Amino acid sequence: MNKKTVKDVSFQGKKALVRVDFNVPLADGVVQDDTRIRAALPTLNHILEDGGSLVLMSHLGRPKGGPDPKFSLKPAADRLSELIGKPVQFVSDCIGDEVKAAVDSLQPGGILLLENVRFHEAETAKDDSCREFAKQLAQWGDLFVNDAFGSAHRPHASVSGVTEFLQPSVAGFLLEKEIEYLVNATTDPERPFVAILGGAKVSDKIGVIKNLLPKVDALLIGGAMAYTFMASEGKDIGNSLVEEDKLDEASELLIDAEESKKNEMLIPVDHVVAEKLEANTPSEVVRDIPDGKMALDIGPKTREMYCEWIKKAKTVIWNGPMGVFETPPFHEGTEAVAKALADSDCMSIIGGGDSVSAINKLGFADKVTHISTGGGASLELLEGKELPGLTSLTDRD
Ligand code: ADP
Ligand code: MG
């Protein structure tokens, strides 16, 4: 990576302003899933061990333009304190006199978490108020660390805005690791390189397909978006989901892949269909989708074909489930792909909220190489886009 990281700077006696992603689910003021807080620990511990103190900032949810107790980061402070084994001081704003006093009295080894930055509209504003807000946030540190991969695609005050006023601005371990896997693996992959893309909509993933298709040896399509591709070839899809306004683009992609002799783009050859999407509803496996039925999972032949590719592959990127995995019996295609990935020694990289939850549910999280923590940010990286949260950091000399 051509950006400075926490390894390139000294934190001795310094206050580090750190943008973390503590956008965690809450219920009754308690953190329900602390994965994102745990993901920040290596960076936070490194800074503390190096003699620094921490001023942490994050967003949580989408509060509408002002303070709202439902979106307070206080529960995250409590959870962080349990995980890190030290007191975490919390202040009820992220700018102003109370914050200034807390930052001024912060001792080496101390930890301070600021309240939700999105309680100020300026955090996400597209005008000069964003820059002004960033300038105020930047006062709280001697240097800036960005470890909020999940927000790295947002040009917000606490993500990229502060870097204008605070140097050096460096990447934390989580951000660095995500970039390493999602960018490096796709730029210079060990081959065969296979991408498996599924999920609900072609429109969400079309940018990813376009960027990855020229790079992969095979692109395997599953999920609901397979039916837009099938419809674009004039095949019958019954009542399966289709995005009519994407038919032309889908058809062009299939033609591009067909003409390129370097790679293959595969769509399902058999399907699990049912009359309605309902748990334990009668279902059957078909090659051609009959009228009145919806295709809700890839069939056994397709699973076998996709798993063969996974077996041969040295690098696999997977984003999006192969079927309606939340609703049995339509989970089997996703399960087969997840199992093949867990059994393989290839470098396996998984992104996308639902695919990650499928891997976790199956208990395969330890058997894959990398699980991305950021849905939107990982999609933008796979689309080949630059992330403001990364480009704004200090270059390595
Ligand atoms: P990810 O979060 O991994 O990026 P998406 O959000 O794009 O994935 O898509 C996940 C959703 O797609 C799941 O809720 C799943 O039920 C749905 N889905 C997958 N296959 C089908 C299908 N054949 N018909 C309808 N919905 C589907
Ligand atoms: Mg999703």
Can you describe this structure?
Helix content is 35%, strand content 16%. With 397 residues, it is an alpha/beta fold. The chain has 2 domains: 6-173, Phosphoglycerate kinase, N-terminal domain (Rossmann fold, 3-Layer(aba) Sandwich); 181-382, Rossmann fold (3-Layer(aba) Sandwich). The strands form 4 sheets. It has a 6-stranded parallel β-sheet with strand order 5-6-4-1-7-8, sandwiched between helices. It has a 6-stranded parallel β-sheet with strand order 11-10-9-15-16-17, with helices on both faces. The model has no long low-confidence stretch (mean pLDDT 96). Bound molecules: adenosine-5'-diphosphate and magnesium ion.
Keywords summarizing the entry:
397 residues; alpha/beta; 2 domains; six-stranded parallel sheet; 13 helices; binds adenosine-5'-diphosphate
List the secondary-structure elements in sequence, H or E.
Answer: EEEHEHEHEHEEHEHEHHEEEEHEHEHEHH
Number of DSSP E strands: 17
Per CATH, the class of the largest domain reads: Alpha Beta
Which CATH architecture of the largest domain is right? 3-Layer(aba) Sandwich
The total tally of domains equals 2
Bound molecules: adenosine-5'-diphosphate, magnesium ion
Give the mean pLDDT. Answer: 96
* Tally of helical segments: 13
Quaternary state reads: single chain
> What class would the helix/strand composition place it in?
alpha/beta
Rg, nearest Å: 23 Å
How many strands, what sense, and barrel or not for the largest sheet? 6 strands, parallel
Instruction: List segments where confidence is low: pLDDT < 50 over at least 5 consecutive residues.
Output: none
Helical content (DSSP H or I, runs of 4+): 25-40%
Ends distance? 12 Å
Query: The CATH topology of the largest domain, please?
Result: Rossmann fold
Shape: elongated
- Estimated share of beta-strand residues: 15-25%
Q: Tell me the name of the CATH homologous superfamily of the largest domain.
A: Phosphoglycerate kinase, N-terminal domain
Query: How is the largest sheet built, in terms of strand order?
Result: 5-6-4-1-7-8
